[in-house]
Design brief:
Belongs to the glutamate 5-kinase family. It catalyses: L-glutamate + ATP = L-glutamyl 5-phosphate + ADP. Pathway: Amino-acid biosynthesis; L-proline biosynthesis; L-glutamate 5-semialdehyde from L-glutamate: step 1/2. The chain is of the alpha/beta class. Helices cover 31% and strands 20% of the residues. The strands form three sheets. An eight-stranded mixed β-sheet has the order 5-6-4-1-7-9-10-8, with helices on both faces. Strands 12-11-13-14-15 form a five-stranded mixed β-sheet.
Length: 374
């Protein structure tokens, strides 16, 4: 079959994400045959001189059978125990399967905290880059053994989108048990596969549902589309398809749904601020400050601030919120929350010299534009 998607076929570094349902069965846990089939495809990609980063779910699911659990645990402690047992089995199975292709794998376990803190984000980036430079294939997963609800990514689709930027990937392939995005639910009636998405408006009338929590997985088409948009807005083309179509997708054949790049690749700082940072508080702006930030992309000065919420420190990420409750931007604040009350509404010339710098510099700010709860 001729190459229909050169931006995928020509990607020199690709992130591939595979879900639990593609690697496991509920009664038997990890399915070595399914895993080996995927590894064979990825081994062929490596043999062609391309680099691969694998984001793999399946740790908790792989731990169910050894612990004689009938389904995915509902309590955190049991889920963490299953992940502890399953992660070892999962990575060892990958290591054995890739060894048949003379490929060494390295395990990279992340929590959301590792990417929401900028210093950790840079460390993750350096680790992945070094592994690839050494010829190692990184196998990335959320660290379910220690992750709590407060520091979870929520699903590995979003993790894969973040890793695609961390790894400076040229393409992202999201694999599951569904062969693409449909304009309806094919299980209940006629539905057409969406071949290409060039903007969010292309899916405006498509009902994607919500994230599912089935026997072994936690994702759903909604999470895959959200992740695809994150990567596409960061300049990375994405294919959403089923695991049996992995080889065809990686070869650039017209399978699944392609999300074309929807923006230029941002700097690591800009991407981190927009998609990976966790705001530590909010800075409330008057109308003049909103216009300055939004229309002129100016730095935020103390004169335009009407209030603050949260307990943040200098250099923490904060949301900049207008009087209508819309988040205008996200940025790194120059002052601790305890210092802010003395600065509110004051002109720069009226401040002591040590407080005359911008509250949020425009180079450390990204525009957002969404409503928040009151």
């Amino acid at each position: 079959m001729s190459v229909a998607r050169p931006q995928i076929a020509g990607a020199r570094r690709v992130v591939v994400k595979v879900g639990s349902s593609s690697l496991t069965t509920l009664p038997g846990g990890l399915d070595p045959a399914r895993l080996s089939a995927l590894v064979d495809h990825l081994g062929a990609v490596r043999a062609a001189g391309r680099e691969v980063v694998l984001v793999s779910s399946g740790a908790i699911a792989a731990g169910l059978a050894p612990l004689r659990l009938d389904g995915r645990p509902r309590d955190l402690a049991t889920a963490q125990a299953a992940a502890s047992v399953g992660q070892l089995r999962l990575v060892q199975t990958y290591a054995d399967a890739f060894a048949r292709h003379d490929i060494t794998v390295g395990q990279v376990l992340l929590t959301s905290d590792d990417l929401t803190r900028r210093s950790h984000y840079r460390n993750a980036q350096q680790t992945v880059e070094k592994l690839l430079s050494l010829g190692v294939l990184p196998v990335v997963n959320e660290n379910d053994t220690v992750a709590t609800e407060e520091i979870r990514f929520g699903d590995n689709d979003r993790l894969a989108a973040l890793v695609a930027h961390v790894a400076r990937a040229d393409a992202l392939v999201l694999l599951s048990d569904v062969d693409g995005v449909y304009d309806g639910d094919p299980r209940v009636g006629p539905a057409q596969l969406v071949d290409t998405v060039t903007a969010p408006a292309d899916l405006a009338t498509v009902a994607l549902g919500t994230a599912k929590r089935n026997g072994v997985g936690t994702g759903g088409m909604a999470t895959k589309v959200e992740a695809a948009f994150i990567a596409a807005h960061a300049g990375v083309p994405v294919v959403v398809t089923s695991t049996p179509q992995a080889a065809a997708a990686l070869a650039g054949e017209q399978v699944g749904t392609l999300f074309t790049p929807m923006g230029r690749r941002p700097s690591a700082r800009q991407f981190w601020l927009r998609y990976a940072s966790r705001p530590r508080g909010r800075v409330l702006l008057d109308e003049g400050a909103v216009r300055a930030v939004r229309e002129r992309h100016a730095s935020l000065l103390a004169a335009g601030i009407t209030g603050v919420t949260g307990d943040f420190l200098a250099d923490d990420p904060v949301e900049l919120v207008g009087p209508d409750g819309v988040v205008v931007a996200r940025g790194l604040v120059a002052y601790d929350a305890r210092e802010m009350p003395a600065l509110l509404g004051r002109k720069t010339g009226d401040l002591a010299p040590e407080y005359r710098r911008e509250v949020v510099h425009r180079d450390e700010m990204v525009l957002i534009g969404r409503h928040v709860g009151r």
